[in-house]
From TrEMBL:
Name of the protein: SYPL2 protein
Domain of life: Eukaryota
Provenance organism: Nesospiza acunhae
Pfam family, any one: MARVEL
Membrane topology term: Multi-pass membrane protein
Broad class of the protein's primary localization: membrane
UniProt keyword annotation of rRNA-binding present: no
PROSITE patterns assigned to the protein according to its UniProt record, in alphabetical order: MARVEL
């Protein structure tokens, strides 16, 4: 939810007054889908572990239970692939929206004649990239 993050920009004409810049974009849906699927996968894994260890005889005697378990696992694997792709796309959109050159281009104060704006350092996105790879 980048639109909720304010950035204070200095006003070159009047040093006492600062303007506020808000970023554009809401990329929270892919991240929420990814995390929700991870939580549901964890809960299903714990339930399946209890079924395998505590109710092993029920699992071996009933022929529909292993097939149902297989189908649910295949569905989770498919949705995990979809969630990872959605999170990867969401992360690339966040990177594009927060790129220093894009932020400088959005600041009206940097568009005036004779004003030189510098981005400084590039944000580190290594851990975010690793979260997509996992």
């Amino acid at each position: 939810r980048l639109y909720q993050i304010p950035f204070g920009m200095p006003n070159c004409e009047d040093e006492s007054e600062a303007r506020t810049l808000y970023l554009i974009g809401d990329f929270s849906a892919p991240a929420e889908f990814f995390v929700t699927l991870g939580v549901f996968s964890f809960l299903y894994s714990m339930a399946a572990l209890v079924l395998y260890l505590r109710f092993h005889s029920l699992y071996t005697e009933n022929t529909k239970l292993p097939f149902t378990d297989f189908c649910v696992t295949v569905c989770f694997a498919f949705f995990w692939l979809v969630a990872a792709a959605a999170w990867g796309k969401g992360l690339s959109d966040v990177k594009a929206a927060t790129r220093p050159s894009a932020l400088i281009a959005a600041m009206a104060v940097c568009q005036a004649d004779g004003v030189l704006c510098n981005a400084g350092t590039t944000p580190a996105m290594g851990l975010a990239n690793i979260s997509v790879v996992r």
